[in-house]
Write a structure and sequence with these properties.
heterodimer; A: mainly beta; Neuraminidase; 2 domains; four-stranded mixed β-sheet; four-stranded antiparallel β-sheet; 1 helix; about 45% strand; elongated; B: alpha+beta; 4 helices; 4 strands; about 20% strand
Chain lengths: ~325, ~110
């Protein structure tokens, strides 16, 4: 039988505690961390994989929560009919939940699966709403309205929400509004009015990414909000509309977009770099989660889609066996 | 050897393609239409694992021209729907603002 040293020129080290993280990627080691001693390695996982399909195919839907616990709501089906359906994802499959009170698409989304927030949106061609609804993990309840109607984008939480930009077909909006769980107040205006952009982060550290500056022109510009003012930061590489996004101002992911694309970019707090592509080219999907564990749900590229994809950037342990 | 295999296969949801699949071969999906129903069109890296994935997904292999035609058919339907979605008195810019830009034609790799 060959020895590892004879094959590779080095011996395998033994560790009582499993190696982990990026620095250990690719290292083969003998683990005595458990009673059953095993040969292990650390592999890099950096890709989109298929998730469970939505029950209702749609685009311009809202999405909030984590990769393994998401609430998706509203949107437009094919042919373009707005819906108030609400579905919950458990990391494997989607289950129907109680519907939004209002049928709409293009809502600003924030929060979690048990404390979600839907603000504004479009209820019919040329008709926009200021309604805000809160989800408690079971049902949606109408709460105080925000000031500016439109198909808008947002981020944050149910008690610290942020809504910025959007459209009233036309104009494109620069307005920002902050929600404290009860009332809405005006925040600082964006430097570039835009719609069909995407947003992620918190009420005091948010990103507004790309989008359309007027009906026939787009921008790749990105702005960062600090709780009072928006500041231009590094632009994404490819100007796109209707992307999804997830994460924070120091670790964000922006994916898909119009024209239908699989392109994904990751922001590390200073620059955007290309990241592994989506499996299915599309735009108008919901995006939520973090920069390392994201979910892209629905969207369209021609027909509306029920596709869900899960992005994972991690360094899991793998036990090496004979097979 | 051709870089890609082309095929149709219905995306069945969770783990239809896995992180390991994405490491093992190129994969990109597009919306297609066969004249009767929407159909998922896949461009798959031409290696053993890619071919096996398409087979295990109960996929039907297509030529590149056939796959492109399916995608173009879906694009055509979307573009026609966009053309027909009019509101009296609405300007071109207002229409784009209302329903987004007119979908283009996608060229598969």
């Amino acid at each position: 039988m060959s020895e590892y040293k004879a094959l590779k020129g080095i011996k395998i080290k033994t560790f009582a505690t499993d190696l982990s993280g990026e620095s250990a990627e690719g290292q083969v080691f003998f683990s005595t961390a458990a009673a059953q001693r095993e040969l292990k390695t650390v592999v890099k996982q950096d890709s989109w994989a298929g998730g469970g399909n939505l029950n209702t195919a749609r685009n311009e839907l809202g999405g909030a929560g984590t990769q393994g616990a998401t609430i998706a709501f509203g949107g437009a089906t094919s042919p373009p009919t707005r819906v108030n359906n609400s579905e919950e994802y458990n990391g494997t499959s989607w289950a129907e939940g109680n519907n939004l009170n209002e049928t709409k698409s293009g809502m600003a989304s924030a929060g979690t699966q048990t404390a979600g927030l839907s603000s504004a949106g479009q209820t019919a061609p040329g008709t926009f709403t200021v309604n805000t609804e809160e989800y408690n993990g079971s049902s949606w309840t109408e709460v105080n309205n925000l000031s500016t109607a439109g198909a808008r984008k947002g981020c944050g939480t149910q008690t610290a929400g942020l809504v910025f930009g959007g459209t009233q077909a036309p104009p494109v909006l620069v307005a920002t509004e902050e929600y404290d769980g009860t009332n809405w107040t005006n925040g600082g205006n964006m430097n570039i009015g835009r719609n069909q952009h995407t947003g992620t982060g918190t009420q005091t550290a948010a990103l507004a990414i790309s989008g359309g500056t007027d009906p026939s022109d787009g921008t790749g510009a990105v702005e960062q909000y600090n709780g009072s003012t928006w500041t231009a930061i590094s632009a994404i590489s490819t100007t796109r509309y209707d992307m999804g996004s997830s994460g924070t101002t120091s670790d964000a992911l922006a994916f898909g977009g119009f024209p239908a694309t699989t392109a994904t970019e990751r922001y590390n707090g200073s620059a955007w770099v290309a990241a592994p592509t989506l499996g299915t080219a599309r735009y108008g999907m919901a995006g939520n989660g973090t920069g390392t564990l994201a979910l892209a749900s629905g969207g369209r590229a021609g027909p509306r889609q029920n596709v869900t994809e899960e992005f994972t950037f991690a360094f899991p342990l793998k036990t090496l066996t004979d097979s | 050897m051709a870089l890609f295999i082309y095929g149709t296969a219905t995306n069945t949801g969770k783990n239809f393609f896995t992180h390991e699949d994405r490491r093992n071969f190129f994969l990109r999906g597009y919306s297609g239409h066969d004249g009767s129903n929407p159909i998922d069109v896949w461009v798959v890296g031409n290696n053993e694992k890619g071919a096996l994935w398409l087979a295990e997904a109960s996929g039907t292999e297509q030529t590149k021209a056939e796959a492109q035609a399916l995608v173009r058919a879906a694009d055509t339907i979307a573009r026609t729907a966009w053309d027909n979605n009019d509101v009296d008195g609405e300007s071109a810019d207002e229409k784009i603002a209302r329903i987004g830009s007119k979908p283009g034609f996608i060229s598969i790799p």
